[in-house]
Protein backbone atom coordinates (compact mmCIF):
# COMPACT_ATOMS: atom_id res chain seq x y z
CA UNK A 1 0.00 0.00 0.00
CA UNK A 2 1.21 3.48 -0.77
CA UNK A 3 0.37 5.91 2.03
CA UNK A 4 0.81 9.63 1.45
CA UNK A 5 1.15 11.63 4.66
CA UNK A 6 0.53 15.33 4.07
CA UNK A 7 0.92 18.05 6.64
CA UNK A 8 -1.64 20.85 6.32
CA UNK A 9 -0.60 24.07 4.59
CA UNK A 10 0.47 27.28 6.29
CA UNK A 11 -2.29 28.50 8.63
CA UNK A 12 -3.07 31.73 10.38
CA UNK A 13 -1.53 32.15 13.82
CA UNK A 14 -4.63 33.46 15.56
CA UNK A 15 -8.24 32.36 15.43
CA UNK A 16 -11.17 31.87 17.81
CA UNK A 17 -9.69 28.46 18.62
CA UNK A 18 -6.90 26.24 17.36
CA UNK A 19 -9.50 24.06 15.64
CA UNK A 20 -10.68 27.09 13.64
CA UNK A 21 -7.29 28.20 12.30
CA UNK A 22 -7.65 28.53 8.53
CA UNK A 23 -5.05 28.46 5.77
CA UNK A 24 -3.46 31.77 4.90
CA UNK A 25 -3.53 32.98 1.28
CA UNK A 26 0.04 31.68 0.98
CA UNK A 27 -1.06 28.36 2.46
CA UNK A 28 -3.86 28.08 -0.11
CA UNK A 29 -1.53 29.00 -2.98
CA UNK A 30 1.17 26.51 -1.98
CA UNK A 31 -1.39 23.77 -1.38
CA UNK A 32 -2.83 24.41 -4.86
CA UNK A 33 0.71 24.05 -6.29
CA UNK A 34 1.16 20.77 -4.42
CA UNK A 35 -2.23 19.56 -5.64
CA UNK A 36 -1.32 20.32 -9.27
CA UNK A 37 1.93 18.36 -8.95
CA UNK A 38 0.20 15.41 -7.26
CA UNK A 39 -2.40 15.37 -10.04
CA UNK A 40 0.35 15.52 -12.68
CA UNK A 41 2.02 12.57 -10.94
CA UNK A 42 -1.26 10.68 -11.46
CA UNK A 43 -1.66 9.95 -7.77
CA UNK A 44 -5.07 8.34 -7.34
CA UNK A 45 -5.72 7.40 -3.74
CA UNK A 46 -8.80 5.32 -3.06
CA UNK A 47 -9.43 7.55 -0.04
CA UNK A 48 -8.42 10.92 1.35
CA UNK A 49 -8.74 11.21 5.12
CA UNK A 50 -8.26 14.47 7.03
CA UNK A 51 -8.12 15.75 10.56
CA UNK A 52 -11.26 17.65 11.58
CA UNK A 53 -9.31 20.90 12.11
CA UNK A 54 -10.10 23.62 9.56
CA UNK A 55 -6.56 23.93 8.13
CA UNK A 56 -6.33 20.18 7.49
CA UNK A 57 -9.83 20.12 5.97
CA UNK A 58 -8.98 23.00 3.63
CA UNK A 59 -5.71 21.33 2.60
CA UNK A 60 -7.42 18.00 1.95
CA UNK A 61 -10.26 19.60 -0.05
CA UNK A 62 -7.84 21.50 -2.29
CA UNK A 63 -5.97 18.29 -3.08
CA UNK A 64 -9.19 16.29 -3.45
CA UNK A 65 -10.55 18.80 -5.97
CA UNK A 66 -7.39 18.51 -8.08
CA UNK A 67 -7.61 14.70 -7.97
CA UNK A 68 -11.37 14.51 -8.52
CA UNK A 69 -11.96 12.87 -5.14
CA UNK A 70 -13.77 13.53 -1.87
CA UNK A 71 -12.52 13.91 1.69
CA UNK A 72 -13.53 11.87 4.71
CA UNK A 73 -12.95 13.39 8.15
CA UNK A 74 -11.28 11.16 10.73
CA UNK A 75 -10.72 12.15 14.37
CA UNK A 76 -7.77 9.73 14.42
CA UNK A 77 -5.78 12.26 12.34
CA UNK A 78 -6.01 14.98 14.97
CA UNK A 79 -3.06 15.72 17.27
CA UNK A 80 -3.07 12.24 18.84
CA UNK A 81 -2.32 10.46 15.53
CA UNK A 82 0.22 7.66 15.85
CA UNK A 83 1.22 4.41 14.15
CA UNK A 84 -1.46 2.42 15.99
CA UNK A 85 -4.17 4.81 14.79
CA UNK A 86 -2.79 4.60 11.26
CA UNK A 87 -2.97 0.81 11.38
CA UNK A 88 -6.61 1.00 12.52
CA UNK A 89 -7.52 3.67 9.97
CA UNK A 90 -6.04 1.73 7.06
CA UNK A 91 -7.33 -1.70 8.12
CA UNK A 92 -10.22 -1.54 5.64
CA UNK A 93 -7.89 -0.96 2.67
CA UNK A 94 -6.17 -3.52 0.47
CA UNK A 95 -2.38 -3.64 0.09
CA UNK A 96 -2.57 -2.51 -3.55
CA UNK A 97 -4.44 0.69 -2.69
CA UNK A 98 -3.15 4.21 -2.23
CA UNK A 99 -4.42 6.39 0.63
CA UNK A 100 -3.76 10.08 1.41
CA UNK A 101 -3.78 11.22 5.05
CA UNK A 102 -3.82 14.94 5.93
CA UNK A 103 -2.92 15.95 9.45
CA UNK A 104 -0.53 17.73 11.77
CA UNK A 105 2.95 17.71 13.19
CA UNK A 106 4.66 16.47 15.20
CA UNK A 107 2.47 13.36 14.88
CA UNK A 108 2.88 12.87 11.10
CA UNK A 109 6.67 13.08 11.31
CA UNK A 110 6.63 10.70 14.27
CA UNK A 111 4.52 8.21 12.29
CA UNK A 112 7.05 8.32 9.42
CA UNK A 113 9.82 7.69 11.95
CA UNK A 114 7.92 4.83 13.61
CA UNK A 115 6.97 3.24 10.30
CA UNK A 116 10.32 3.33 8.52
CA UNK A 117 12.95 4.83 10.80
CA UNK A 118 13.43 7.97 8.69
CA UNK A 119 14.07 11.02 10.83
CA UNK A 120 12.06 13.63 8.92
CA UNK A 121 10.30 16.81 9.95
CA UNK A 122 7.44 17.45 7.57
CA UNK A 123 7.19 21.14 6.72
CA UNK A 124 3.74 22.68 6.34
CA UNK A 125 2.36 21.41 3.04
CA UNK A 126 4.95 18.65 2.63
CA UNK A 127 4.11 15.08 1.61
CA UNK A 128 5.89 11.84 2.51
CA UNK A 129 5.11 8.74 0.45
CA UNK A 130 5.51 5.38 2.19
CA UNK A 131 5.41 1.88 0.79
CA UNK A 132 3.58 0.38 3.75
CA UNK A 133 2.28 -3.06 4.62
CA UNK A 134 -0.41 -3.78 7.15
CA UNK A 135 1.41 -6.98 8.12
CA UNK A 136 4.68 -5.13 8.83
CA UNK A 137 3.77 -1.54 9.79
CA UNK A 138 7.23 -0.82 11.24
CA UNK A 139 9.02 -1.91 8.08
CA UNK A 140 7.74 0.71 5.69
CA UNK A 141 9.94 2.22 3.00
CA UNK A 142 10.13 5.98 2.49
CA UNK A 143 9.61 6.33 -1.26
CA UNK A 144 9.90 10.11 -1.45
CA UNK A 145 9.47 13.33 0.45
CA UNK A 146 8.37 16.54 -1.26
CA UNK A 147 8.43 19.99 0.28
CA UNK A 148 6.36 23.05 -0.70
CA UNK A 149 9.47 24.52 -2.36
CA UNK A 150 9.77 21.45 -4.59
CA UNK A 151 6.06 21.48 -5.38
CA UNK A 152 6.36 25.18 -6.22
CA UNK A 153 9.20 24.68 -8.67
CA UNK A 154 7.49 21.70 -10.32
CA UNK A 155 4.01 23.23 -10.32
CA UNK A 156 4.79 26.24 -12.46
Description:
It is a single chain. With 156 residues, this protein is of the alpha/beta class. It is 35% helix and 19% strand. It is built from 5 helices and 6 strands. The protein has helices spanning 25-40, 54-67, 83-90, 107-116, 148-154, and strands at residues 2-7, 47-50, 72-73, 98-103, 127-131, 141-146. A 6-stranded mixed beta sheet has the order 3-2-4-1-5-6, with helices on both faces. α1 (25-40) runs parallel beside α2 (54-67). The mean pLDDT is 95.
How would you state the average pLDDT, rounded?
95
Please identify the structural class as seen in this structure. alpha/beta
Quick one: CATH superfamily? Phosphoglycerate mutase-like
Enter the CATH topology name: Rossmann fold
Beta-strand proportion:
15-25%
At the first level of CATH, what is the class?
Alpha Beta
Q: How would the global form be characterised?
A: globular
SS summary, helix count: 5
Question: Keywords, please?
Answer:
156 residues, alpha/beta, Rossmann fold, six-stranded mixed sheet, 5 helices, 35% helix
Per-chain topology:
Layout (H helix, E strand, L loop, with lengths): L1 E6 L17 H16 L6 E4 L3 H14 L4 E2 L9 H8 L7 E6 L3 H10 L10 E5 L9 E6 L1 H7 L2
Parallel strand pairs: 1-4, 2-3, 2-4
Antiparallel strand pairs: 1-5, 5-6
Helix pairs in contact: 1-2, 1-5
Amino acid sequence: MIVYLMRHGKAEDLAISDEARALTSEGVRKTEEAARVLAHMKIQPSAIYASPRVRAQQTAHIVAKALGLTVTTREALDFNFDLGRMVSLLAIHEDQEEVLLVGHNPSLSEVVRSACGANVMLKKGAVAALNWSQTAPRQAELLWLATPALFGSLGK
